[in-house]
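DM from R.C. (forwarded with permission)

"hey, sorry to bug you on a friday — could you get me a structure for this? deadline for the figure draft is monday and I only need the backbone to look sensible"
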Amino acid sequence: MDEKAIMDALVQMKRTGNLLNELWDLTQQLGQALDRSDQVSIQMLIAMREEPLGKLLAADQALRDQLEALPNREDAAALAAMLNGGPPADTAQRPQVMLCEQVGSNHRRLKQVRELDRVLNQRLGRENSAYQ
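My reply, with the result:
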């Protein structure tokens, strides 16, 4: 598999990881603002979460575009499998291993963000929560 394609995907996944960490931090701050009943901070933090969410969508689209642009369908399928949480196609290639580790890390952080978001959304929206 083309090492450049793996490295490009790794860069996007690291960017995604940083954005997920930023989203996690903002979501935690939102929870703290809810605990304090600080309406101004709540509104501000909700608005601030839009930026990393938009960038996450852009990073996801960049990965999809990268997969589409790969000329070899087998390489595209192998990369897609790794991006979906599968094992490295070749464990001897460190970039593939690093990519799979980053994908796993991003998945764990996303799960944490989703769970905290669900709890906070239920606290904010009560019976109108998006998670009801």
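R.C.: lifesaver. Residues 19 and 52 are 6 Å apart (CA to CA).
me: no worries. The radius of gyration is 18 Å.
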